[in-house]
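[retry 2/3] E family RNA polymerase sigma-70 factor: previous attempt timed out, resubmitting with same input.
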Amino acid sequence: MGTAVGTRDQGRGSRAEAITDFDAWVSARGPDLLRLAYVLTGNRADAEDAVQDALSRALPRWDRICRADDVDAYVRRMVVNANVSGWRRFRRRETPTTVPVDGVARSGLPSEDRDALWQACRALPPDQRTAVVLRFYEDLDYPEIAALTGVREGSVRSRVSRGIATMRTALGDDDD
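[retry 2/3] E family RNA polymerase sigma-70 factor: success.
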């Protein structure tokens, strides 16, 4: 995911070129951003809001963002940050009963197991849920999660560990 679709390497282009590059990048990466946001937020409306917030902040800065070492990671962090801002604004969240975003159910688990796993994940505090989702859904390593969330690696490890322990208890799996 390191190189961005539709980015320019030749310095500043016109505003129209930046918008065209941005549109191409969003067309290629938008569904992945929406899936990430959905797993973080638990409902499609909040996921769409988080992605829209992140992208609306990215567009005016696109000429700078598209020159970043890892454009995808940069914008993913913007989505995570938009989600964190959402937690601060709205402490009460709905608990989803289904997983409507295509691809989220890619685990291969039977639907009842997947639903139970999803409910256990949704019950986690937001900081633990974010760490668990980034670790196991996005398959990021601890240093990447720390960089993405702006939290020390030790805190990320602790959040993942506590989140998994809480989920195991909720799912009735106390085996280690």
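[retry 2/3] E family RNA polymerase sigma-70 factor: The two ends are 33 Å apart (CA to CA).
[retry 2/3] clearing retry counter.
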